[in-house]
From TrEMBL:
The protein's name: Ammonium transporter Rh type B-like
Listed transmembrane segments: 12-34, 54-79, 91-111, 123-142, 149-168, 180-198, 210-228, 248-268, 280-299, 305-322, 343-361, 407-432
BP-aspect Gene Ontology terms: ammonium homeostasis
GO molecular function, one term: ammonium channel activity
Organism: Acipenser oxyrinchus oxyrinchus
Domain called Ammonium transporter AmtB-like: residue spans: 26-437
Function: Functions as an ammonia transporter. May play a role in the elimination of ammonia in the gill.
Gene that this sequence comes from: rhbg
Length: 475
């Protein structure tokens, strides 16, 4: 039996983009306006320009942009015949996700007076929502069309935004590096999508999944960009001052220890005692995730060092043993191993954060305990609050939680994040499986020729299909 699969994006992609952009144009026109830091009418001749939030937030915004567009893009270009897809679909999906997140997150966090008030801080928040989508993308890399990826971003951003809003508003947790709200959510959402889009024939490998010398070098460049800018990712939403300072130090220490551990384990677990590029590209980053939940806390440098080593080890073993098991036994294919780099390490990070919350005390933090753990501050009207405000002017009232109370809220947030992300991923996967979204057939997964005009020297075993919009597939 012969099926005819249309690989042409000539109608579907322009129509989908036109619908999305017109929708966004209308929403921006109706709801989006400047916040106080960007509105000229709010500024006066007496205003010190250097006090504008731009100068605090923009350096972090730029660093996270580099991670999203260059770091993720290069990292995903490791396949020998899917470099265009890895980098360009990352570019396409990220751009739309940020546009969409400004609107969706704005309604929950920055909406008042009938408008979404936008400044560079909103864009930074939108970048984090975008990062969630790109992490999820890693689970289905090479097995989806650009149309499917745009639809995934369309659905995932609102689900993430609602979950984030509910956790921040009602559970009020400490999660400076986004272990619960970014890494774990993105991981299990992506695995939920991948479960629905399961392809049994890919469990035995695919001829186009391999790498080349050049693609591995490009991918490790992405790793280096992510590695260098990860301290900005982890510290951008922490309190300015000593909290932010600790976050940067802990992230660097965690990354450095996970990197050295990754090199050692890569040689140890290789039968020939050689280094594996996939380990260098991915496992070296584990420490940045593992310190995330406790990154701004007084955990001590040695704890950050240990977390980097523990995260790296779990990530490495996950790649070697857990990913194949999940594909063959649980019908969960994880193309980039996001469960190892973001799921397992996110769970370790969350556990470490809970332990740090339980042992945090004024002996270690002084009165700033109630800044780092804002929800443990006394409630409004408590005499203790006035005493603390004399020591720390501007300290806000909290929830009066004990350490154990706060730890329980962290556990609840973890459960909510995992539950909602899995359910959302499964539902999104059902939508992405619709034939109209042009999911590529098994034979043309991990193949740029399906969606791109490629150079003449492109090395592909399926050369006759290179310049055709219709691909014949024998059943």
């Amino acid at each position: 039996m012969i099926k005819i699969f249309s690989s042409s994006l000539r109608c579907r992609l322009p129509v989908l983009v036109a619908i999305f952009e017109v929708l966004l144009l209308v929403l921006y026109a109706m709801f989006v306006t400047y916040d106080d830091s960007t509105n000229a009418a709010r500024q006066t001749n007496q205003t010190d320009p250097l006090q504008n939030s731009l100068y605090h937030v923009y350096p972090f915004f730029v660093d996270v942009q580099v991670m999203i567009f260059i770091g993720f893009g290069c990292l995903l270009a490791f396949m020998k015949q899917y470099g265009f897809g890895g980098m360009v679909f990352n570019f396409l999906t990220a751009t739309f996700a940020i546009q969409w997140a400004v609107i969706v997150q704005g309604f929950f966090q920055f909406y008042h007076d009938g408008k979404i008030h936008v400044g560079v801080f909103n864009l930074l928040n939108a970048e984090f929502a975008c990062a969630v989508v790109l992490i999820s993308f890693g689970a289905i890399l090479g097995r989806t069309s650009p149309i499917q990826l745009l639809v995934m971003a369309l659905l995932e951003v609102p689900i993430f935004a609602v979950t984030e809003w509910a956790i921040l508003k009602y559970l009020k947790i400490n999660d400076a590096g986004g272990s619960i709200m970014i890494h774990i959510f993105a991981c299990y959402f992506g695995l939920g999508v991948s479960t629905v889009l399961y392809r049994p024939c890919l469990n035995e490998g695919h001829s186009k999944e391999g790498t080349t010398y050049q693609s591995d070098i490009l991918s490790v460049m992405g790793t280096l960009f992510l590695w260098v800018f990860w301290p900005s990712f982890n510290s951008s939403l922490t309190l300015p001052g000593d909290d932010q300072h600790r976050a940067i130090i802990h992230t660097f220490i965690g990354l450095s220890s996970s990197t050295l551990t990754a090199f050692a384990l890569s040689a140890l677990l290789n039968r020939k005692g050689k280094l594996t590029m996939a380990d260098i590209q991915n496992v070296t980053l584990a420490g940045g995730v593992t310190v995330g939940a406790s990154v701004d806390m007084m955990i001590s440098p040695v704890a950050a060092f240990a977390l980097g080593m523990i995260g790296c080890t779990s990530c490495m073993l996950g790649y070697k043993y857990l990913t194949p098991f999940m594909a063959k036994k649980l019908r969960i294919q994880d193309q980039c191993g996001i469960h190892n780099l973001h799921g397992l390490t996110g769970l370790i990070s969350t556990t470490a954060g809970i332990i740090c919350i339980l042992i945090a005390s004024e002996d270690t933090y002084g009165p700033s305990l109630y800044q780092t753990f804002a929800h443990r501050a006394p409630v409004e009207g408590d005499p203790r609050l006035k005493e603390l405000q004399e020591l720390i002017p501007g300290l806000n009232p909290g929830e009066g939680r004990s350490a154990s109370d706060q730890a329980l809220y962290q556990v609840a947030a973890l459960g909510v994040s995992i539950g909602v992300s899995i359910a959302g991923g499964l539902l999104t996967g059902l939508v992405l499986s619709l034939p109209v979204l042009a999911q590529p057939p098994d034979e043309f997964c991990f193949d740029d020729t399906l969606y791109f005009e490629v150079p003449g020297e492109f090395d592909n075993n399926v050369l006759p299909t290179r310049n055709h919009d219709m691909v014949a597939i024998t059943d």
